[in-house]
């Protein structure tokens, strides 16, 4: 009879082959053999991310974190599931925890992806607040959105085809998003000129910064991008003088400024 590790290996092979459903099944068998290994749960969670099976993914992450509280992958996949399940506030916290663990363990290979997830979650949080603001300002928007949601729910109930039900849900969500876009454009507060201050943009990736650090020359960069640069070229990108990772210093004032800017300008994530 196959062992838990044997089933895990079969799951890894299926995952690498793109057969995420079979991978999920193999990881499940591994868990049935040994439910004390947090890696089995994060492996299955990753397969469920690929399958977009968000509730089961969330449950796997919670179990992995119960077994290993500082499990970076557990928090990373948990944040993805929370984001897809429309819980952006929780997703921000989980993604930030994953980032903190990356720094603690010097896991630079995952840092960039985690940063992007944090920014996505912060944008979703801003969008949720913006939607609520628009709903409170417009009775017509509330009425139209409620009508779209009710019609979509009715169509889902009327169909017996699961794939068609998924298509209806996606189409309904897109209609609601388009509705909000129309009302946002018509909102005077939304028509203000949108610009991101240059000092909040990383000069390597040209993206909005989440965790800026400053070099000896006084230039700030996103931590993950400057650390990736130093792996291939241990020099200051601006002065070309020798630079080591240990010489980087957190720019706490700039980090706070970026965080405060995102609270009211979630669109800046896509700058």
The helix tally amounts to 11
Which structural class do you get from the secondary structure elements? mainly alpha
Largest sheet: 3 strands, antiparallel
Task: Return the string of H and E elements.
Answer: HHHHHHHHHEEHEH
In one word, what is the shape? flat
Instruction: Report the span from N to C terminus.
Output: 54 Å
Number of E-type strands: 3
Radius of gyration: 22 Å
Lay out the secondary structure.
Elements: H1 4-16, H2 20-33, H3 38-50, H4 54-67, H5 72-84, H6 88-105, H7 108-137, H8 139-158, H9 162-186, E1 212-214, E2 220-222, H10 223-232, E3 249-250, H11 252-264
Antiparallel strand pairs: 1-2, 1-3
Helix pairs in contact: 1-2, 2-3, 3-4, 3-5, 4-5, 5-6, 5-7, 6-7, 7-10, 8-9
Task: Jot down its keywords.
flat, 271 residues, three-stranded antiparallel beta sheet, mainly alpha, 3 strands
Describe the structure.
With 271 residues, the chain is mainly alpha-helical. The model has no long low-confidence stretch (mean pLDDT 90). It is 68% helix and 3% strand. The radius of gyration is 22 Å and the shape is flat. A hairpin with a 5-residue loop joins strand 1 and strand 2. The chain is built from eleven helices and three strands; from the N terminus they run αααααααααββαβα.
């Amino acid at each position: 009879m196959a062992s838990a590790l044997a089933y895990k290996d079969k799951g890894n092979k299926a995952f690498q082959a793109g057969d995420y459903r079979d991978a999920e099944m193999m990881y499940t068998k591994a868990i049935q053999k040994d439910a004390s290994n947090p890696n089995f749960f994060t492996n299955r969670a990753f397969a469920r991310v690929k399958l977009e099976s968000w509730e089961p993914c969330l449950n796997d992450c919670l179990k992995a974190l119960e077994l290993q509280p500082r499990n970076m992958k557990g928090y990373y996949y948990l944040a993805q599931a929370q984001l897809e399940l429309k819980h952006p506030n929780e997703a921000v916290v989980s993604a930030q925890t994953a980032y903190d663990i990356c720094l603690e363990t010097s896991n630079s290979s995952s840092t960039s992806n985690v940063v992007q997830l944090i920014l996505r979650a912060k944008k979703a949080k801003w969008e949720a607040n913006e939607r609520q603001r628009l709903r409170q300002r417009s009775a017509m928007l509330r009425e139209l959105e409620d009508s779209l949601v009710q019609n979509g729910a009715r169509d889902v109930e009327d169909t017996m085809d699961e794939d068609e039900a998924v298509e209806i849900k996606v189409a309904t969500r897109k209609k609601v998003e388009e509705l909000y876009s129309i009302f946002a454009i018509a909102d005077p507060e939304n028509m203000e000129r949108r610009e991101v201050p240059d000092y909040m943009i990383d000069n390597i990736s040209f993206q909005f910064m989440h965790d800026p650090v400053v070099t000896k020359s006084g230039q700030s960069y996103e931590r993950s991008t400057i650390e990736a640069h130093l792996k291939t070229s241990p020099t200051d990108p601006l002065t070309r003088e020798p630079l080591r990772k240990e010489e980087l210093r957190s720019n706490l004032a700039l980090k706070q400024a970026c965080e405060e800017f995102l609270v009211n300008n979630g669109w800046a994530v896509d700058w």
